[in-house]
Every structure is written in structure tokens, then in C-alpha cells.
Design brief:
The chain folds into three domains: 19-158, PH-domain like; 184-336; 343-411, OB fold (Dihydrolipoamide Acetyltransferase, E2P) (Beta Barrel), CATH 2.40.50. It is 51% helix and 17% strand. It contains eleven helices and 13 strands. The strands form three sheets. A six-stranded antiparallel beta sheet has the order 8-13-12-9-10-11. The protein has a four-stranded antiparallel beta sheet with strand order 1-2-3-4. A three-stranded antiparallel beta sheet has the order 5-6-7, with helices on one face. The radius of gyration is 29 Å and the shape is flat.
């Protein structure tokens, strides 16, 4: 027989159980925004896929482009549909004995006693398992209640980033190669931190100078090319106390901003500012410089600790960046210091176009000229792009290059 007392007891039990379980989802406003943006993307892709079936628009997309573009767009539409479902169904739950995440792509669960600790980044909270065989749970910081999740984790589990920093600091202060006493080692660590800050500020300023206002050009680019070499010297001087890797939760000071910013800037200047005609003589010096720099970084400094494997991915990424730096340096030096007399050819503009994104690029499609036997697109400066139109004549200034890497410039 159901009595008021039994109903009250049952209600209390359900309330207690529910109070132990917390569910977190994307906030309503962000969910609505996501639905709108994804819907617009789906509509745009669907329009492009159906365009050949719309009267009067059959030839808007060339067939040879459509045959590979349509499957990509359809795949993108399917992915976006999954994104909508994930926005609606995705959630993270803290239960009485476990935590779990629900996603359209996967579900993951960890019992409370299986949790080792947590880490946090700008975009995710990472809940790490004790057993490496188990998958960690990744929680987006865009869901509502992120601070509450972090507070619950902090109350019950260690912050692994903070723990790692404390362990590394202890390791540094116990390492006699950084000083004879603990006080000397602590002072050396402070000096390394100050040096890293100065290098990062200087490198960031130089990178911005070269990217956004490289004037005077030769001075700006040479300073940017020399700066990573100075960085290698600083890494060598502090003998492993300063790192290139910028892992969160590390006690080692990092000069990642300076080193990566300047190497990327050199690469972009070489890629954007010059039109290489023949790459045959380019690859050997690029490979040689890359190998030399990698040897300097990996063997001449202790910028990366490769023994435990944690810094191997970062080292690999930086090696690729050094390859880009080598490419940019060789191209810039070959072209900007080419004092030879150019061969001048006249050609016509068949078409012109602009691509936008993180960087705006402007192109002319030109008729054959000199050694260029086919029509080809070339990048041009903004002023020339705005000055000339389709059908206008333009001059090609063909140069042999300081290192024998032929290149050309386009002008009026």
C-alpha cells in the first residue's frame, strides 16, 4: 500500500541520487549559434552540389573540378550533420561513482578510483586515467559549468600540470650541473626565466616587424634570419635549462614564441615575396642547411629531452619548422641579394584573382614568355594588381639568382 510516508521517502531517495549526478552540456546560446552556423554551411555546400542541376547554372563549375569537389562537399555535409547531432546529444556527467562523456563519435567512462588526475588547456579539460590502456576523457571548455567541473576535480584529484611543474622544479634544484648549492641552482633558474622572457619579447617584435612591415627589407629579413641562431646560442649557454618546447606545466623556461615566430616569418617572406622559376638548384642548399640546423639543435644543445619520449613530437614539429626556415632563408638571400641584370619579357594578363584567409594573395594568369612555354599564374603585389586589368601588358624581369636559383618579378 502506497502511503504519504513511503512517497516522501522515495522522493527523498531520488532527490539524493539526482543530487549526486551533475550533467553538463553546451550552453543554449552557444548551441543555437552552432546550429545556425552549421545549417548555413550545409546549405552552402548543398547549393554547390546541386548547382549543375539548376537551370542556367549548369556550367558555373567546370566538370573536371566538380567530379572531385562534389564528393568532398557531400562528405563535409555528412560531417556537419554529425556535428549538429553531437551538439544536441553531447554531454559530460559526474555521477556518484563515475564520470563519463557522451558524444556522437564515442562514449568514454572512468570510475572515480580509475582517475589519476586532470590537466586543463584553453579549450579542454583532460581527465587522465591511472591505467594507460584506458582512454582519457576530454571535456570542452565551451560547455556550461566548466568552473564547477574544475572545482570538483581540484577537490578530489591532483592537477597533473602543477604536479609535473613541482617535480621538474625539484629535479632542477637537485641537478648539480646548474650550480654547487640549491641557492645557486635557484638563482640560475631565475636568470634563465628572465633571459627567456627577453628573448620571447624580442623575437615576437622581430617576427611582427618582418610579417607586417618589413622595412628596410634587407635589414628586417637578415635580423629575422639571424635571431634563431642567437637563440641556439642562448640554449647552449643555459645547457638545457631553457627549452624550445612550450608545454604547459613545465618548470623549464621556454623560448618557443621567439624561435617559432621568427622561423615562420622567414618562411612566409620567402614563400610570398618571390616567384621561383626553377627549383632544381634550390633543394640541395635547403636540405644542407636543414640538416645542419637540426644537428645543432638536437646535438649541440639540450633544447629537447628525447630520453623519455614526451618531447619527441615537439622536436619533430620544430625540425619541420627548421626546414621551412631554411627554405625561406635560401630564397630570400638568393633573390634579395641578386645584383645581376634582369632579362625583360613582355606578356599579357589573361585573368586575375584574389584569395583571402589568414593571408591575402593576388594572382595574374599570364601568357607564355621566355622560357615559360605555357600559361601560368604568378603572385603579384597589391599595387600592381589594382593598377592593371585583364588584357593589359606586363613585364617579366627574369633573374638568375645569387645562388643560381632562377626567379622572376612582375612589373609594369
Amino acid at each position: 500500500m502506497v502511503t504519504p510516508l513511503s512517497l516522501a521517502i522515495t522522493g527523498t531517495i531520488f532527490h539524493y541520487i539526482y543530487s549526486l549526478m551533475k550533467e553538463y552540456k553546451l550552453s543554449k546560446s552557444l548551441a543555437v549559434f552552432t546550429y545556425v552556423i552549421i545549417s548555413l554551411l550545409i546549405a552552402g555546400c548543398a547549393w554547390a552540389v546541386l548547382m549543375p542541376l539548376i537551370p542556367g547554372m549548369e556550367d558555373e563549375i567546370p566538370f573536371n573540378v566538380y567530379v572531385w569537389l562534389a564528393p568532398l562537399l557531400i562528405a563535409f555535409i555528412v560531417l556537419m550533420i554529425f556535428g549538429i547531432v553531437d551538439t544536441a546529444k553531447g554531454k559530460f556527467v559526474i555521477d556518484s561513482d563515475r564520470v563519463y562523456s557522451v558524444s556522437v563519435f564515442y562514449n568514454r567512462e572512468l570510475m572515480h578510483h580509475e582517475i589519476k588526475g586532470f590537466r586543463s588547456t584553453d579549450k579542454h579539460i583532460l581527465i587522465e586515467p591511472v591505467d594507460p590502456a584506458k582512454k582519457r576523457i576530454k571535456v570542452s571548455t565551451y560547455i556550461s559549468g566548466t568552473n564547477e567541473i574544475l572545482q570538483w576535480l581540484s577537490d578530489n584529484y591532483p592537477d597533473l600540470d602543477l604536479q609535473n611543474m613541482q617535480e621538474e622544479r625539484t629535479e632542477i634544484l637537485n641537478d648539480q650541473q646548474y650550480g654547487g648549492t640549491t641557492e645557486e641552482r635557484e638563482e640560475q633558474l631565475k636568470r634563465a626565466g628572465k633571459a627567456a622572457k627577453i628573448v620571447n619579447y624580442a623575437g615576437g617584435i622581430i617576427a611582427a616587424w618582418v610579417l607586417f612591415f618589413p622595412r628596410p627589407y634587407n635589414v628586417a629579413t637578415v635580423v629575422c634570419m639571424v635571431f634563431p641562431i642567437i637563440g641556439f646560442g642562448i640554449l647552449k649557454y643555459f645547457d638545457g635549462l631553457i627549452k624550445i618546447d612550450a608545454r604547459k606545466g613545465s618548470a623549464f623556461p621556454s623560448i618557443a614564441i621567439a624561435m617559432m615566430g621568427t622561423t615562420i616569418s622567414v618562411l612566409l617572406r620567402g614563400a610570398v615575396d618571390y616567384n621561383i622559376f626553377d627549383y632544381t638548384n634550390l633543394w640541395l642548399p635547403v636540405i644542407a642547411v636543414t640538416v645542419l640546423l637540426i644537428a645543432v639543435v638536437l646535438m649541440g644543445t639540450r633544447a629537447f629531452s628525447l630520453k623519455n619520449g614526451k618531447e619527441v613530437p615537439a622536436a619533430i614539429v620544430y625540425c619541420f619548422m627548421l626546414a621551412g626556415y631554411s627554405y625561406g632563408s635560401v630564397v630570400v638571400l638568393n633573390c634579395s641579394y641578386d645584383n645581376g641584370k634582369p632579362e625583360v619579357y613582355t606578356t599579357k594578363i589573361l585573368n586575375k584573382r584574389i584569395t583571402t584567409g589568414k593571408h591575402t594573395s593576388r594572382y595574374f594568369e599570364l601568357t607564355p614568355w621566355g622560357l615559360q612555354k605555357d600559361t601560368a599564374e604568378v603572385t603579384v603585389h597589391k599595387s600592381l594588381y589594382e593598377q592593371l586589368e585583364k588584357g593589359d601588358s606586363v613585364n617579366i624581369y627574369f633573374m638568375k639568382g645569387r645562388f643560381g636559383i632562377s626567379w622572376f618579378d612582375v612589373g609594369d
